[in-house]
Amino acid sequence: MDGTTGSGDRGPGMPRWVKICGVAGIVVVLVIVVMLLVGGEHSPSRHMHGAGPGVVGTTVVAAGSALSGVCL
Amino acid sequence: MAASTRLRKTALVTHIGASVGWLGAVFCFLVLALVGVTSSDPGVVRGVYRIMEPVAWLTLVPLAFASLITGLVQSWVTPWGLLRHYWVLFKLGITVVCTGVLLLYMRTFEAMAQAAASDAPIEAVRNPSPLLHAILALLALVAAMVLSVFKPKGVTRRGQRRPVGVGTVASAP
Questions:
Q1: Which residue, among B67, B104, B146, B171, would best test binding to A if mutated, counting the most A CBs under 10 Å from its CB?
Q2: E strand or H helix at A56
Q3: Burial B114-144 (b: 16+ CB within 10 A, else e)
Q4: What is the mean predicted confidence (pLDDT) over B116-126?
Q5: Residues of chain B above pLDDT 90, percent
């Protein structure tokens, strides 16, 4: 944001990078929303793997699902 | 005009400082998380997960809000606007989502700190979650930084309707 605006960015329609990144962004946001709705909330139990009763929950976060973005 | 230039530069420096500071803080958390996952010293592992929560409250959260607020100020004091260019919109989205996830994740930091302070076995204290979240946050913030520098072309419908500079401090005489 240096206060200058290029004059060549007023082309008609939406640029391809916007469409691609927009779809990716919507998918990420949907994944977060689904995780919140399904899990009730982004609670610690989603991330903890059994530190003993009374401390945290016991949900195991599978590395595969986490790396695929499910655990955002 | 001189005043507006000074204002714009001050706002820009503040925004860059907050955003890069946030990026650096996340990188430190990535290293902390890596130590927590890999260290063989139980004291170090417990210390890592205990220190994350207060440090996050004192660095990540303030820097996230500082980045968001100074970014909004930037959109006001420069001709770029907030809703005129796609790259600005994407940066706003990234910042809002990252800040929201961070706030949600603060409860996880708290739970991990409690686990580390308890007499739970060290393997129950060790947790890969901060490492994953730090990597994702780093990728998102780097993407925002790249957008800031390259400013890819693309004007929204609102940007096409409203001439550049209308309603901004920078356009004031």
A1: B104
A2: none
A3: bbbebebeeebbbbbbbbbbbebbeebbeeb
A4: 95
A5: 83
pTM: 0.79
B113/chain A closest Cα distance in angstroms: 10
Confirm if B95 and B71 have CB atoms less than 8 A apart: yes
pLDDT band with cut points at 50, 70 and 90 for residue B46: very high
Q: Which of A54-58, A65-69, B33-37 has the highest mean pLDDT?
A: B33-37
B57 DSSP assignment: I
Q: What's the pLDDT tens digit per position in B57-67?
A: 999 999 999 99
Q: How far apart are CA B88 and CA B80, in angstroms?
A: 8
Long-range (24+ apart) CB contacts under 8 A made by B162-168 are B162/B81, B162/B84, B164/A5, B164/B79, B164/B81, B164/B84, B165/B79, B167/B81, B168/B76, B168/B77, B168/B78, B168/B79, B168/B81
- Residue with the bigger pLDDT between A57 and A16: it is A16
Which residues partner with B155 through β-bridges?
B85
Q: Which of A8, A11, A49 sits opposite B124 (nearest CB)?
A: A49
Looking at the complex, does the CB of residue A51 fall below 8 Å from at least one CB of chain B? yes
Report d(CA B161, CA B143) in Å as an integer.
Answer: 28
